[in-house]
Write a structure and sequence with these properties.
The chain is α+β, with helices and mostly antiparallel strands. The protein contains 20 helices and eleven strands. It has four domains: 160 residues, Beta Polymerase, domain 2 (2-Layer Sandwich), CATH 3.30.460.10; 86 residues, Orthogonal Bundle (Hydrophobic Seed Protein), CATH 1.10.110.30; 99 residues, no CATH class; 44 residues, no CATH class. It has a seven-stranded mixed β-sheet. It has a two-stranded antiparallel ribbon with strand order 6-7. A two-stranded parallel sheet has the order 10-11. A hairpin with a 4-residue loop joins strand 3 and strand 4. Bound molecules: adenosine-5'-triphosphate (ATP). Adenosine-5'-triphosphate binds next to helix 7. The site of adenosine-5'-triphosphate has 12 residues, from helix 7.
Length: 429
């Protein structure tokens, strides 16, 4: 195990980890890499999220480390943690970052409350973690570099394909771990062991979600919907009767699987299209699907309860407002001019439009939305307000109206060059 552990890890990263181990030693501390990175090394999954635990003062260590590597330092005094952002990257376009924490012990004074934290040993730090598979470490000190540390048989559980908590109070301490259990189970094709599943049921019966910080539940929900194949996790959450904590009216019918699949197909199609697609929130499109059976008030309440950002809330509510109406409009048999479709779709977020496309029953509707995205959405005209003023039009709303009409003519293919646009404007005047 110890020798294989660095297989396929970029040399640059191994060197950095060695440096971290040596620097910690110089300061009289010990450094370890912990959590998802270790788990994914064993599973052979690519993961460059580096979480370091220091037996010693992590903030003092991080200051010196950031100085040495010329990285940017962000300190979170309250938690005794720091992040160092390196001046280089491993994965494309993203500065490489290292999260560094002091080894600590947590004590939960009340169920689901934030814990009291006390600095401690690596073993205690690993014991406060969610599952055995996430509670393994690799030593970074010079004489034990690469040594695999596994106090709770995480390796055994990986071999068995099991998600298992470290102690029976785990979900009472932190019920968001229920989402995490399902997420890891479904991601790796593991199963939550019987004891852990019983503890989940007990925590649910005792309404532990009701006592948890809502933002944390929202963040876990987003992480779940960001999984590669979220429908599996959603189905499992449904089976464990956990979705009612998100909203009691969420219904999981057989159509949802089909809809999730269709969303992914539409999303992949759009993101690989020649358009310069901006980054879209795929999780939000899945959430739109999950909230299909809620009315507008239900969506509004849910956004408030889980403190979704203003931007997320606007997109979710506008989807609820317009999706069915617009789908009905787009399924009309008669010919629709591209500009008529443009006027309906342009005000909507791309997430809403892709959701509608995934939901649309007929090919005609899908094609109409597809044409809007590929041909009309980004059409621009060359005529400006100044041009219209030169024709004698006074400053005021009429200018905007006429520019809008020129745009529609351009979308419908009636004008193309600037001079055609201006001739068209003259005719309108
Ligand atoms: P992913 O691949 O989804 O990022 P990860 O294991 O790296 O998985 P993170 O959320 O980045 O997950 O957390 C890093 C580590 O912190 C976990 O591996 C786990 O050891 C610990 N951890 C995270 N959340 C919790 C929690 N709610 N309770 C206990 N330990 C946690």
């Amino acid at each position: 195990m110890d020798k294989k552990i660095w297989r396929a890890v970029p040399v640059k990263l191994v060197k950095l980890l060695r440096f971290i181990g040596e620097m910690a030693e110089v300061k009289g501390y010990s450094a370890f890499i912990v959590g998802g990175f270790v788990r994914d090394r064993i599973l052979g999954v690519k993961n460059f999220d580096v979480d370091i635990v220091i037996e010693g003062d992590a903030i003092d260590f991080s200051r010196s480390f950031a100085d040495e590597v010329k990285g940017a330092l962000v300190v979170h005094h309250k938690f005794g943690t720091a992040t160092v952002v390196m001046p280089w990257s491993i994965a494309k376009d993203k500065r490489f970052k290292v999260d560094i924490a002091t080894a600590r012990k947590e004590r939960y004074r009340a169920p689901a409350a934030l814990p009291d934290v006390e600095f401690s040993s690596l073993r205690d730090d690993l014991y406060r973690r969610d599952f055995t598979i996430n509670a393994m470490a690799i030593a970074l000190s010079r004489d034990s570099f690469g040594q695999f540390i596994d106090f709770f048989d995480g390796l055994g559980d990986i071999r068995k394909g099991v998600v298992s908590v470290l102690h029976k109070g785990s979900f009472i301490d932190d019920p968001t771990r229920i989402f995490r259990a399902v997420r890891f189970e479904q991601r790796f094709g593991f199963r939550i062991d019987k004891h852990t599943e019983d503890l989940i049921k007990t925590a649910i019966d005792e309404d532990m979600f009701g006592r948890t910080e809502r933002q944390r539940i929202r963040d876990e929900l987003i992480l779940m919907l960001n999984e590669r194949d979220p429908v599996k996790a959603v189905m499992r959450m449904h089976q464990l009767d956990e979705l009612r904590f998100i909203h009691p009216n969420i219904k999981i019918g057989k159509d949802l699987k089909r809809l999730f699949k269709s969303i992914k197909e539409r999303y992949d199609w759009y993101m690989t299209s020649p358009l310069k697609a901006k980054n879209l929130d795929l999780w939000l499109i899945y959430l739109m699907a999950l909230l299909s059976d809620l009315d507008k008030k239900g969506v509004r309440d849910l956004c408030g309860k889980f403190v979704f950002s203003r931007n997320d809330k606007i997109r979710l509510i506008s989807c609820k407002d317009s999706c069915d109406k617009i789908l009905q409009f787009l399924s009309r048999k008669k010919h629709l001019r591209p500009s008529e479709i443009y006027k309906r779709l342009r005000p909507l977020s791309c997430e809403t439009i892709l959701f509608m496309m995934a939901k649309a029953k007929g090919d005609k509707v899908k094609a109409r939305i597809g044409d809007f995205l590929m041909k009309s959405k980004d059409v621009k005209i060359k005529a400006k307000g100044m041009d219209l003023k030169r024709m004698g039009l006074k400053e005021g709303p009429a200018i905007g109206r006429i520019l809008g009409q020129i745009l529609c003519a351009k979308i419908d293919g009636e004008v193309s060059s600037k001079s055609e646009e201006l001739t068209y404007a003259r005719r309108l005047l």
